[in-house]
Design brief:
This protein is an alpha+beta fold. The protein has one domain: Nucleotidyltransferase, domain 5. Helix content is 45%, strand content 18%. A hairpin with a 6-residue loop joins strand 2 and strand 3. Helix 3 runs parallel beside helix 4.
Length: 117
Amino acid sequence: MNKNDSRIRRSRQTRIKIAELNTHRLSIFRSNSHISAQLYSACGTQVLASASTMEKELRATITNGGNSLAAKEIGKLIAERAIKAGVSEVAFDRSGFRYHGRVKALAEAAREAGLKF
């Protein structure tokens, strides 16, 4: 089992537990050069809001999409878009990534901007 397979296995376990809660899910994806976040509905079939460092507006302001400063911006942006969509309480799905560095920065910025998880 390689590193990515282990991450996918961990993410599967997390998503099963979040599905039992029947709540909105804030899912993230982290690559070497970018980070993105999506807010899914409680049933998991609809994307209610999304934010990514690959968006044209953000690329003009963010010099490097793969650092913690970019993750903080994405956290603030996804929280604003979630509140605009009428969602204030979510379950945080870190997609098997360790709660450290960019993942932690995104989560803390989203909490500060008004999301509860």
